[in-house]
């Protein structure tokens, strides 16, 4: 990250802290979906819930993250 502009580094730091503050289930969903490139169906199987539940939870979590970023 040394060669990235300071603003970009701050964005990563802020996002990391927001994700760190999520509850364990929400954190796991975000990590699996966006950092491990798992599909909603794969995440659903891992969490033993339906794909529809993962979709709803993911949308809710993303809204929460967006709200904190603004």
Please describe what this structure looks like:
- The chain is mainly alpha-helical and about 70 residues long.
- The protein has 4 helices and no strands.
- It has helices at about 5-20, 25-35, 40-45, 50-70.
- α3 crosses α4.
- The longest helix is centred in the C-terminal third of the chain and has 19 residues, at about 50-70.
- The relative contact order is 0.13.
Main beta sheet: strand number and arrangement?
Answer: none
Give unreliable regions as ranges.
none
Described by the principal axes of the CA atoms, the overall outline is: elongated
Strand runs, count: 0
> What is the overall number of helices?
4
Q: Tell me the radius of gyration.
A: 14 Å
User: What does the average pLDDT come to?
Assistant: 91
The H/E string reads HHHH
Question: Could you estimate the helical fraction of the residues in percent?
Answer: over 70%
User: What is the structural class?
Assistant: mainly alpha
Spatial gap, N to C terminus: 23 Å
**Beta-strand level of the residues, as a percent range?**
under 5%
């Amino acid at each position: 990250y040394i060669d990235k502009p300071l603003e970009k580094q701050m964005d990563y730091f802020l996002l990391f802290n927001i994700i760190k503050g999520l509850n364990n289930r929400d954190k796991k969903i975000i990590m699996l979906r966006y950092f491990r490139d798992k599909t909603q169906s794969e995440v659903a199987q891992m969490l033993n819930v339906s794909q529809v539940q993962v979709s709803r939870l993911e949308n809710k979590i993303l809204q929460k993250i967006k709200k904190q970023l603004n």
